[in-house]
Each structure stands twice: as structure tokens, then as C-alpha cells.
UniProtKB/TrEMBL annotation, chains A, B:
One MF annotation (Gene Ontology) recorded for this entry: aspartate-tRNA ligase activity
InterPro entries, A to Z: Aa-tRNA-synt_II (IPR004364), aa-tRNA-synth_II (IPR006195), aa-tRNA-synth_II/BPL/LPL (IPR045864), Asp-tRNA_synthase_2 (IPR004523), Asp/Asn-tRNA-synth_IIb (IPR002312), NA-bd_OB-fold (IPR012340)
GO terms of biological process kind: aspartyl-tRNA aminoacylation
Compartment(s) where it occurs, according to its Swiss-Prot or TrEMBL record: Cytoplasm
Span list, region Disordered: 1-55
Protein name: Aspartate--tRNA ligase, cytoplasmic
Primary localization: cytoplasm
GO cellular component: aminoacyl-tRNA synthetase multienzyme complex; cytosol
Catalytic activity: tRNA(Asp) + L-aspartate + ATP = L-aspartyl-tRNA(Asp) + AMP + diphosphate
Keyword terms of this UniProt record: Aminoacyl-tRNA synthetase, ATP-binding, Cytoplasm, Ligase, Nucleotide-binding, Protein biosynthesis
Length: 502, 502
């Protein structure tokens, strides 16, 4: 056990833990609170009675942390506890998960984000019976400060992320105690639908409303911890891909004076003595940034849609990732940039977020995401042909219904082995007034949607950047020119051709 | 001139420009539009008359770009036109700025974001009189596609960003024409207040309302182009500094059910059949993320304040950069992280955005920003003492007025040579109910503000993470417990001590 001794020595050098004075004070306080806690929670168990407590000052409930001092202790994350580094350590604050109690020892699990480690508190020369008992009464989801020796285990601990080591506890304080009755158990909230259906475990299902009413607990599941990190990853990879291409990040107004897209599905805000609206998209502002010579811009921010439907495609508020760029000759310059941006995100997630994806898959199993490089681009006509071949009746200039989108996603996946593809050249009739018509065929337009697993995730088009043509098309669509004047005017002082995903 | 010939040859290999067919079509169209344009704009000037046009097909107004083809031309940015690389090139779309016309030649300036280059169109074997005349009639702020030879100039061109070269134009097309009368001139909008006051140039001042009514033009000034890029830089450096420390980016709801901070200064939204509110800060959500075991989070997003005041400190909507982190022993762990984050932003801006800062300084002169590493931290008491020493009467537990904040900024700058400092330990009485009292002196609190040039830019405190103490303090502040129940409840299931800038 040489290396253990060495490590213990080096840790002593790094910092011995709280100062003696503070320890004493803590111990006193802890003892007081612990006694109170014990009174409340102990029941039939025999306690240490009047025996002197050899662990005094090494466990208990910490007083409320009010920033009195800064002890010089080195704190270790659970995720970094691995078998090659056997050491004495203090674990960064972690949540207590579950217990197994035998006569003289207590096994419990501590969790930190999506990492967890098994802890062992065993009556010994330094650990008292009272201490083991105190720890066995700590409520689940309480926050602990635990110190001890990291040891290799004989068997893999399958329930924990750190499977090869366990922590032999020598000191443990409750930093923040959870109430004894939790509205939901993390392990229930983390259970997969398939395991519930197969009945190979407890069959407690946590409903959506219980989750949302207790979001703080629900977010402690490994899948939710991972989803938040993947969300961050998507934004980060989006930015990186676009910054490499010289894009400038902008922020666009959310409270706007005019309900830009005709007034449907827009939230109204009481703006002092007037009314204002919440922006349904940053579209007009992005385009004005292009006319203002920013050339390539992107924005990440809240968008608002007053859609009173409860589907996963209808949210009243979400975070939009949006871009707009000037091009020279052909809107495919932009389509290519967006396609490559998606591939960079797909690749980046697979490379940098594999642990998080695995955590999500454990609760929500899914096949690995497939994509082609360069991405597949089909014309709308080709999509219609594939649907017809599969027996679907759909018109040449008819928009895709949601079921048809899903079916086409499956047909494309079967034929081309990709979960991501671009559908180009939509019928002009089904797109907004500002969409540039296809110069070769007036029934179609310079517009496209992109799909992931049969769901549209982005929609875009070359915008009409000529004020005269824009006014003509607006009139055809019965869009009042008065209402879109600042938008049309922004093209009057020189504007490059451009396009975005709205 | 060997290198020029070589470069011309190599460019020919890379791509000759548009295909012959397209060129012919363009030329035809251009000629037609150009003729029309000439008719409209020429007046007293003599024209080429019936002489054959040797430049036919090399100038004119391009037809509306509807994505017909993708010519294989290599495009060059104005910012990359430097004297060491003399070459034949096509400049990426750029805006026409201003002219100087002599008998046979035309000097004009092309601008691209904050870069500009002088262009020369001179009657020659390849440039016709008609072409020079056509170009001299292009309206300012029109978007051009210009091709020519880059040559070193004899004298520095002080009006342009590219001072050592000019472009000898051989081909030029109008991609998007600006209207002849502009609501404001870019050079007027870019003029500094001091140059207006000193009267060392034209004295046209562009008013704020003219700017805002014509934001697309106003944003073409070098200072505004730079400000947008610096804004991006601040967000980017903020993210980088925090990601290095393991922070997770989150997004928080903007439409909320309850007016969280007492209902004052909050915008009301009509939410279907109910009312909702716009979030005044992401605070409660950040804290709930900490209670949900994210440990360190940040968010960048819109915040809304219904403040009907027209000062630069009162905006109804702005982008907030916000963070929250758990700490172990002392809220100074967090203060240190924030201080270092600010220093990383200051350093990053100076290193990576010096060109942009110079562009802003040209219109808005300012001294270089000074800061200390580590940042200066003063206690509130010390600040009060400095103010009193300067003759200001202020109470021990009185909040700083705006004039006192400004004065203290000047005193600190004079004494410590820093534009950035932290003022720690504010009186408890002037801070919100959720602020942790100072454990050593109940008149003060574990809270602070940070200042740049005498203006508060961030405000923070250790939050009370104990539900009982929180309820007590709320009662003292007359905050109804009913209204903050979900917030208080989020501390009931184990929560680390934490603090944020609200």
C-alpha cells in the first residue's frame, strides 16, 4: 500500500482540511445539530449510547455557510476518481443517492452531475458507531462534503459511473439537508420507458406534471444533465462553424412595434400606454444587418409564437438558432454553408459529447445519427416522386403534410442511409411572398427545407432583395405594403442578394 | 512588372469570371439598363456618342440575381488588398463611397465593412469613355462587383483603410443600386463630436432619430461596424472564460407566470386567455439550475424592464450576460471567478479587437482601459471613507447615489490606476431579501457591485440557500411567501451555497 501512504502524505502537504479552530467550532455545532437530527430520525436502532465518540468532529451537519473562512483543501470531482490514482481525497459537494446497511458498515452512493461513486462507512479505529448511524440517517438528495481514501474494488460497481473504485469515508458533513420525503425519486425519473414496459425493475413512472412541478429534482437525472450539456454543445458548435466562415453574432429586438408576419400567432405586450408585440423570429433584423453590410450574421435567442397547441412542434417560446448571409451568384452558396454547418454539429456532438449522448440513450434509446458528407440534396420534385412511388397521392405544387414529411424521411433513410437531408426548390405557391421565384421554372422557388429524421428543422429561401419585385409579390399575397415599409425600404440603398433560414 | 503578369496568368487559371454565355447575356441586359440609367442620370456631360464601345460587356447594371449560375471566380476582400500582393482580382461585393472626377479618369472609393480601397477608372485601351461615364453616375452606397489590377500607390491614401494600394478597374457591375438621394451620408454619420466642435470639416451632424430611422445606413459607419463586432467579442470572451472553468450554458424562460420581483417595472403579456409577464432577469432559473446540480451555469439572453426613463441606464430590453455558481466555503470564490472573467474579457478585447477599438475611438475618442490583475477589491466602508475624504456626506448604511458612484470611480482611478474595481460588503439594508448577511457584522452583507469607469456593471451576492432563513428575511422585507414559493421550495431538496450577479 505504498502508493496510498505516499498520496496521503502529498495531500497533507496540499492542505489538511479546515483549520483546527474552525474544525472545533464545526464539530461543536455539528454535534449539537447531529444530536438533534438523531433524535428526530433514529427510531428502533440501537445507538452508541454514552460511549465516547471516537469520530467526534469528523461528521455532522455543517452550520449554514455564510462565508466565514476559506480552508485550503484540494477538492476532487467524482468523475476524476479512477483506479490508477488511489488517494486520500475530499470530494467536491455531491448528492447522496442510496444506501445499503449491514451490521457495522454502511454503503451509500454519492452523485455529482452524471457521475457517481460508491462510499463505504465502516466502524473502525477512526469511524465510530455513532458516525455510521448518523450517516445512515442522512436523507436522500442531501448535499454532503465527504473525505476519505479511494480504494480499488474487487468487483465492478455497476450502479455507479466510477465502477472500479470506492471511497472509504473518514469524514462526512451534511452541507444542505433534503427534506425526508421527496416528491419524486431520481432513479424513478431516470427510468427508461422500455424498462417500465418490460417490467424488469420497479414500475414507478414519473408523470410529466410531477417532473415539471419538481424540475429541480427532475433535472438531476443523468439524461437531463446530459441534455442540457448537449444543448450547450449544439449552440457552441453552431457558433464555431459560422465564426470560422466570418459570421458576426448579432442580437435582435424581442419587443417589436408591429406584428411583422400578419399578426397571427403573435403575443401582445402592454408597452406603457401602447401595445407592442413579441418577435416571432429575428428575420427582418437579420436581413437589415445584411443590408447594413455585415455580410454574414447569426443570432441565438428567444423567439415567441402564440400557438395554443400542445405538440412538440408548437412551443410558445423557444431558442432559435438563426443565420443570414449575402451571396454572390447563387443561393446554393448559402445552402452549402448551412449543410456543412449541420455536418460540423453532427460530427462535433459525436466527438465531444459521446458520454452525454450515451447518458441520454440509456433512458431514451436511439440509433446513432447517420449523415452524408456533403449532405444529400434532393429537389422537391424528386421527393414527390418518391412519395408517389410509395403510393401517396400528392400534387406537384402541394406542400408536404407532416405525415408525408415523416414518410419521406423514412424513404430517404432507406434509400440513401442518411437521417439528414435537404429538400430544395419548393413550389412558389406554398412559400411566403418574399421568396425568390425559380428563374427557370415559375412554379418553383429558390427555397428549401432541411430535415432530421423526417422532421423539418430549418427552412430557408433566397429573399427578394429588389424593392420593386418585393412590392409586386407582396401585393399578390395580399400583404399590405404599409406594414412592411421599413423592411422594403431597407433594400433601397444597395443590398446584396441574401438568404437565411427563417 | 513581372509579378503582375504572373498574377494575372494565375488568376486566369483559377477562373476567368462568368461564362461567355452568361457574360453575353449580362452584357446585353447591362447595356440596356445602363442606357436607360444613363438617360436618367446624364445631363450636361458629353457622352461617347456613336463611337463603338470598347468596354462593352465589362460594365453595367447586373440583372437581378436569381441564382441562375455559379461562376468560378475567386473573390478577394478589400481588407486583404495589401501592397505585397500585387494582383489582378475581383473584389467581393462592396459599397461605393465617393468620387473624384477629372477629364479622363475617375477616382472612387469602395467600402466593405470597416475596410476601404481607392479605385481608379481611366480611359485606356480597355476602358472606354462610356464606361468611365457610366461609373461616374453610379449612386453612392450602390453595391458593386469590381475587377481590376491592384497597384502600389506613390502616396499613402489617407482616406482609405488600404493606404498603399489602389485598384485599377477593368470591369465593374452594379449589383444593387442605391436611390440617388440618401437620408444620411455615411461620412456625416461617422464624424466625431470633437471634429464637429472644432469645425475642422463639414459641420453636418446626424441626429439620433435620423440614425434610428435609417439604421441600415447608420450601421455602415466604421464605428458601428466595430461596435457590433466588439459586442460579439464580449459574449465570446465571456463564454470562453467560463467554459474553461466548467460552466454550462443554459437558456431561461422569458415569458413567466408570476411577476417575480414584486410586479414593479414588469411588462405584461396577453397569454391566450390569461396574463403572463416578461422576465426581468434569469435569476430564479439560474439558481434553480444550481439546486438541480449544474454547479456552474451562465446564460446570455434578453431581459426586459418596464422602465419608462430615457437614460443610458434604463432600457426596456437588453441582452444580459449572467452567471451563477455553487461555492464551497466563501462567496469570494465566486467574486474571484468573476473578477478573472472580466480581466479575460479586457485582455481579449485589447488583443483580438484592437482594430475595432481603434475604429470606435476614431469617432468616440477614449483613453485605453486600465485594469489590475488581480482586480482591485475595496470594502464598501473604504469607499465611503474615500468619498468623505473628498468632502461628500454619506451615511454608513446609505446606498451609493449615481453621482457618488461616478465620483468614487474617479477617486479610485486616481489612487489605484484602474478603470475596473470591485466594491464588496454592501450594507444589508440596501440589498434584496435573499442576500446573505455578513456573519461578522450584521449591518453589512455578503454582496458586492463591480464598476467600470464609475458605472455599476454587475451586482451580486451570496444568496441565502436555507429555506428557513430565506422565509425570515422575506418576511422582514414584506415579500409575500406565496409568491416566491417555487423559489423557496427549490432549496428544500439539498442545495449548495451559491451566488450570481443578478
Amino acid at each position: 500500500m505504498t502508493d496510498e501512504t505516499e498520496n496521503a502524505a502529498s495531500v497533507t502537504e496540499q492542505g489538511k482540511g479546515p483549520s483546527k479552530k474552525a474544525m472545533k467550532k464545526q464539530a461543536k455545532e455539528a454535534e449539537k445539530v447531529a444530536k438533534k437530527a438523531e433524535k428526530q430520525v433514529t427510531s428502533a436502532q440501537g445507538d452508541g449510547g454514552d460511549q465516547p465518540d471516537i469520530s467526534e468532529g469528523r461528521y455532522g451537519v455543517l452550520p449554514l455557510i455564510t462565508s466565514i473562512e476559506k480552508p485550503d483543501r484540494t477538492l476532487v470531482r467524482i468523475g476524476s476518481l479512477v483506479r490508477t490514482i488511489v488517494q486520500y481525497c475530499t470530494v467536491l459537494l455531491s448528492y447522496t443517492v442510496q444506501y445499503m446497511i449491514t451490521a457495522t458498515q454502511l454503503l451509500f452512493e454519492q452523485r455529482q452531475q452524471h457521475f457517481s461513486v460508491q462510499c463505504l462507512a465502516m466502524v473502525s479505529a477512526s469511524v465510530s458507531k455513532q458516525m455510521v448511524k448518523f450517516l445512515s440517517n442522512v436523507t436522500k438528495e442531501s448535499l454532503l462534503d465527504v473525505q476519505g481514501v479511494v480504494r480499488k474494488t474487487d468487483q465492478k460497481i455497476v450502479s455507479c459511473s466510477q465502477q472500479e473504485v470506492e471511497l472509504h469515508v473518514e469524514q462526512a458533513f451534511v452541507v444542505s439537508a433534503a427534506e425526508p420525503v421527496l416528491p419524486l425519486q431520481i432513479e424513478d425519473a431516470a427510468r427508461s420507458e422500455s424498462s417500465l414496459e418490460e417490467g424488469d425493475g420497479p414500475s414507478i413512472r414519473v408523470n410529466q406534471d410531477t417532473r415539471l412541478d419538481n424540475r429541480v429534482l427532475d433535472l438531476r437525472t443523468p439524461a437531463n444533465q446530459a441534455i442540457f450539456r448537449i444543448q450547450m454543445g449544439v449552440c457552441e458548435l453552431f457558433r464555431q462553424a459560422l465564426q470560422r466562415q466570418g459570421f458576426v453574432e448579432i442580437n435582435t429586438p424581442k419587443i417589436i412595434a408591429v406584428a411583422s408576419e400578419g399578426g397571427a400567432n403573435v403575443f401582445e405586450v402592454t408597452y406603457f400606454k401602447n401595445s407592442a408585440y413579441l418577435a416571432q423570429s429575428p428575420q427582418l433584423y437579420k436581413q437589415m444587418a445584411i443590408a447594413a453590410d455585415f455580410e454574414k450574421v447569426y443570432t441565438i435567442g428567444a423567439v415567441f409564437r402564440a400557438e395554443d397547441s400542445n405538440t412538440h412542434r408548437h412551443l410558445t417560446e423557444f431558442v432559435g438558432l438563426d443565420l443570414e448571409m449575402a451571396f454572390h451568384y447563387h443561393y446554393h452558396e448559402v445552402v452549402d454553408v448551412i449543410g456543412q454547418m449541420f455536418n460540423a454539429i453532427f460530427r462535433g456532438l459525436a466527438d465531444q459529447y459521446s458520454e452525454e449522448i450515451a447518458a441520454v440513450n440509456k433512458q431514451y434509446p436511439a440509433e446513432p445519427f447517420q449523415f452524408l458528407d456533403p449532405p444529400l440534396r434532393l429537389e422537391f420534385k424528386e421527393g414527390v416522386a418518391m412519395l408517389r412511388e410509395a403510393g401517396v397521392e400528392t400534387g406537384d405544387e402541394e406542400d408536404l403534410s407532416t405525415p408525408n414529411e415523416k414518410l419521406l424521411g423514412k424513404l430517404v433513410k432507406a434509400k440513401y442511409c442518411t437521417d439528414f437531408y435537404i429538400l430544395d426548390k419548393f413550389p412558389l405557391a406554398v412559400r411566403p411572398f418574399y421568396t425568390m421565384p425559380d428563374p427557370q421554372d415559375p412554379r418553383y422557388s429558390n427555397s428549401y427545407d432541411m430535415f432530421m429524421r423526417g422532421e423539418e428543422i430549418i427552412s430557408g429561401a433566397q429573399r427578394i432583395h429588389d424593392p420593386k419585385l418585393l412590392a409586386e409579390r407582396a401585393a399578390l399575397h395580399n400583404v399590405s405594403l404599409d406594414k412592411i415599409k421599413p423592411y422594403v425600404d431597407s433594400f433601397r440603398y444597395g443590398c446584396p442578394p441574401h438568404r437565411p433560414p427563417p
